[in-house]
Recover the amino acids of this structure.
């Protein structure tokens, strides 16, 4: 299956069904009363994490996911059927963004994790719900709430404990073969590895962790050159970075110190956090004669770094490398535990602090004088009232007017000089103003 780590598509949850206006018409039952049922809820859209998936290919092919609408209410107090929900499977390590705002909606880090991304619209109430002692035969009903439509960007970042980075042909794939049960393709040409390869590793103390062989890094990757961003996004999730340096310098043609500097530069320019991650420098290909000439120079230049000499091809010093990685991960785990304890303490302190006061919510509405005694009313809060209360019955018109009055719209119209007989435009309807 082709590896796809970025996909754009649209999701839309289902609309709620409309409530029903109905009255009992039965033989020998005088004035039976209202019996209109509620509408059913629209289908929601959930994302579920599936460790069996390794790519976003399915999401790239299908560009729109639409949940069904709820059924409308029926007579005899029968409620409309709730619509079925839609479940979309994503691989472990997927991040879901709102593509318009770039806001993170969900981050899938464990198998079978389920997140509600777009809730279905709630069904509207039928007229049976509005009967009371003052109005025993209401013709009031509600329309179902609209579903939610979101433009989604799904990004897959490989979840691995350790990321192998380095220039093409540094020996990353060969080393992954040596330290794990993985069998990546190995060849003597640049960019053999085009997609991340994962391998499960176990050290001599029984500590297990996942290593990722990531595509080769080149100068300018932080600006998108080569595999660029498609490479760098995967390393963000790794807890340890292992820099694989070909100590032979491509058999004497390259400066190994300069190669390491270039890698560090690309990581820091892409994301400052990458530069601050724990790192282990792996001096690879020490079985080659040229490597022995350069290893001492490299060690003298970076005396404060953790440098481990190995040969992925000959499997030299592999056990020691795995032990060092296992120890480093334990140090990170201890630090993370301390941070979680500190965070829990801070959250408990906040919960114990009492806050008194009221923060009024801002009403979203706009009133525009269009001239010639015409006015336009718009805004999200107005739209909610408009969608919820269809003006197909006289009772619904009264309810609509009352809700608009509570919103403060009529007071504003008076202040702005609206006169009796002026035309009020509210979305696709026109009403005449009488104060």
């Amino acid at each position: 299956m082709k590896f796809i780590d970025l996909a754009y598509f649209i999701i839309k949850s289902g609309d709620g069904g409309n409530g029903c206006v109905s009255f009992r018409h039965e033989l020998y039952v005088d004035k039976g009363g209202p019996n209109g049922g509620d509408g059913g809820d629209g289908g929601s859209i959930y994302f579920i994490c599936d460790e069996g998936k390794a790519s976003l290919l399915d999401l790239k092919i299908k560009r729109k996911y639409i949940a069904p609408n709820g059924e409308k209410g029926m007579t005899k107090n029968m409620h409309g059927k709730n619509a079925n929900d839609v479940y979309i499977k994503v691989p472990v390590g997927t991040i879901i963004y709102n593509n318009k705002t770039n806001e993170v909606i969900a981050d899938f880090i464990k198998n079978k994790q389920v997140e509600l991304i777009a809730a279905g619209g709630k069904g509207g109430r039928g007229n049976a719900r509005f009967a009371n002692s003052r109005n025993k035969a209401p013709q009031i009903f509600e329309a179902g709430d609209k579903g939610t439509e979101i433009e989604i960007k799904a990004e897959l970042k490989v979840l691995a404990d350790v990321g192998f980075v380095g220039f093409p042909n540094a020996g990353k794939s060969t080393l992954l073969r040596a330290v794990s049960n993985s069998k990546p393709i190995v060849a003597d040409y640049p960019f053999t590895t085009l997609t991340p390869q994962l391998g499960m590793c176990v050290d001599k103390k029984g500590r297990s962790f996942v290593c990722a062989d990531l595509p080769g890094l080149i100068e300018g990757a932080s600006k998108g050159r080569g595999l660029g961003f498609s490479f760098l996004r995967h390393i963000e999730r790794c807890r340890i970075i292992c820099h694989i340096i070909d100590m032979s310098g491509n058999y004497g043609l390259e400066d190994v110190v300069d190669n390491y500097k270039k890698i560090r530069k690309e990581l820091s320019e892409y994301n400052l956090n990458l530069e601050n991650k724990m790192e282990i420098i792996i001096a690879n290909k020490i079985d080659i004669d040229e490597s022995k000439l350069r290893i001492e120079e490299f060690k003298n230049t970076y005396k404060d770094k953790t440098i481990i000499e190995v040969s992925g091809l000959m499997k030299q010093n592999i056990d020691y490398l795995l032990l060092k990685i296992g120890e480093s991960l334990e140090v990170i785990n201890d630090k993370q535990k301390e941070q979680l304890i500190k965070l829990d303490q801070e959250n408990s302190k906040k919960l114990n602090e009492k806050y008194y006061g009221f923060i009024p919510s801002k009403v979203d509405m706009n009133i525009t004088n269009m001239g010639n005694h015409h006015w336009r009313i718009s805004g999200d809060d107005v739209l909610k009232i408009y969608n919820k209360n269809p003006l197909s019955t006289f009772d619904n018109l009264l309810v609509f007017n009352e809700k608009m009055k509570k919103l403060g719209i009529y007071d504003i119209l008076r202040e702005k000089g609206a006169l009796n007989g002026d035309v009020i435009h509210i979305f696709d309807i026109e009403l005449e103003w009488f104060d």
